[in-house]
Structure formats: C-alpha cells, structure tokens
Amino acid sequence: MSPSAGSRDPFAGRIPVTIITGFLGSGKSTLLGTLLRHPAMHRAAVIVNEFGEVGIDHALLADSTESMTLLPNGCLCCSVRTDLQDTLRELFIKRRAGEIIDFDRVCIETTGLADPVPIMHALISDTMLAAHYRLDGVVTLVDAVNGSFALTNMAEAVKQVAVADRLVITKTDLAPTERVAALCAQLRDVNPQAKQLEAVRGVLDPTELSGLSFHRARTDEVALARWLGPVDPHASSGGGDRRERLLTSGHSAGITTFCLWFDVPFTWQSFTAIVQVLTSLRGPDLLRVKGLVHLEEEAGPVVVQGAQHLFHEPVTLESWPGDDRRSRIVFITRGLERDAVESLFRAIGAVAGHAAPAGGTSGPPPPGSAAHV
Hints:
Mean pLDDT: 78
CATH architecture of the largest domain: 3-Layer(aba) Sandwich
Largest sheet: 8 strands, mixed
CATH class of the largest domain: Alpha Beta
Oligomer: single chain
Low-confidence stretches: 51-55, 57-65, 236-251, 355-373
Helix content: 25-40%
Number of domains: 2
Shape: globular
C-alpha cells in the first residue's frame, strides 16, 4: 500500500501538541509561566501534572473544583487528575461543545522524572487522540547549573535530551560561561540534531517551540533543516554521516546518533519489511527516528518519524526540498550501533528485493493502519 492519500495531509486540522520535559529543577514551570504571557499563546491549553513540581497556576487549580482553569490572558490551564489520555479527550470534547476556549495548541508539562516517550506513544496509538491531535515536538529543558551532573548520573535526564526536537538551556545567568559551554558540548554528544536555545528566567520566543514537525505545509530546505537537524549533505550512501556520537560514561553509555543515506529508491514493500524486522527486534532501542524516504511509487519524499516501535502516519510531500533526492534517516539509538542497523538493513533489504546500499532505516506503517508495527 502506498503511504500517500492523494494530496491530502493527514495531519491537517489536527491540534499541535508540544511536550515540555526536563529534569527536576530545570525550569519548566518558569518557562511556561513566561510563555503564557506572550500574545501568541493566548489560545493555548496547558496540561500540568499536579503530582509533580509546582506547575503553572497550581494554586488556582488547587482552589478550583474543576480540573480546568481559564487564566487571565485567555489561556486554559488543566491538571492531570486521572489519565493524560482522558484529559486530552475531555479537553477536545469540551472545546467542540463550546464549554471552553477554542484552543489552537496544547503544551504538556511533564514531571521531572518523566519519560516523554509514553506521551508520544499515546498521541500516535490512541485512535481518538490521533484523529484530533498531532505531536508537534518535544522540548527538553536543561539546567545550566546542575544539568551536567544529571546527564552523567540520571538515565531519565539522558533520555529526555535524546528524544528532544529542541533543547532549552536554562539558568545560564547563574552558571560560569565555561560550564555552559561544556554543557552545550555534552548535549550535542547526546543529541546533535536538536537546536539549542538559551532561556534566562523563562524568556523565549514561543515561535521557537512550535512548528517543529515537518509536513506538507512547508517543503523547503529551511523547514527540513529545522525538523531533521544538521546532517552531512555530501555523505555517500555507502558511508552515511560519519559524525555519529557514542557516549561512554555514566548512564549516557550507548546513546548513539547517526544519519543514513540511500541512493536507490525503495518500494513500499521493501521499506515496510525492513521496518517490521528492525522494530520487532530492536524497537525499544530506537529512541527517535526521523527522515525523508524516496519511494519508487511516489514523486515526492515520504516523511517518517517515530519513537521506539511506534511511528506517525506517513505523509507524502508534493516535492523534494532541494535537488538531493536521496533517502536520509536520522537515528538516535540506545545500545544499538550503526553497524547493527546497516547489517539488518542489508539482510532484510536483500530478502525484500531492495538493492541495498550500506545503511538502514525504520519507518511507519501504511496509512489507516495501527501505528504499532
């Protein structure tokens, strides 16, 4: 089955969701509190976890008999009192019924020890949620004072950084310049694809934290670079992007980032065969996968993105962003090195009838099917 559905964008009209995560004390609530005073955020819905750190207007929520509170600037603040999926469903139902504001985006503030991947999975795998919401991106905050210690000693902090689309470094005004520079380098080792930003006392342009996904609305090279991150455009399909990072200390050991390139177009059958084997064998180790795939059946590239064994519905773009039509897939993995992915790709690709160059990939299920492969 082809991944396209004509010219339709399956994510059009769905409400973008931004997951804001970060280790304990990283400044998530401070950032959100500042962002919500920005005019561009006046129709945002913010979901906070009442069992976590002190979140946005938790005092208001504590005094309210309802889980939802309208803030003075028009934003909606909501606490998670049951299950996050139930909260998102309730928000949408109340929005459609006109009982709450017609919010145009959702920000989810996780607790400091939370793994953001289950939230990503919920947005992909829950049929009702996926019909109305789409994951726009993961924003991870890192404390400039204590972030390096957390990355060295806390596995949760490393994973939060590894799956991020944006990294926001906070409290840079409280840390020596050399410590901030060292932290930036450490973050690049874990996730070189994510753009790094600084926010002092939560001050940040909200446009930097939205539009992180890549879909039919924009197909230019700027949008690609914003979404996919830096990859080597001169890499050969046999060698890929050789700037992969393998960390070797503390709980960061085994986090690897690499980009694979392919000169030869795939068929949908060969591509999905590789997907199914790779995700079934090593799904938990695929922390993030993003890429553009050249299929024989499609004129434009197919956008693939996922976390572990779950992937978004594929989207076929109308045109390629630039002249380079090679498939390119960025992997952030845990305990799964590049050579293993390449070997799997060569073996399964050969069986599936694809003349495989060195490299490998994983991708989504056909549209209209379950996101679990």
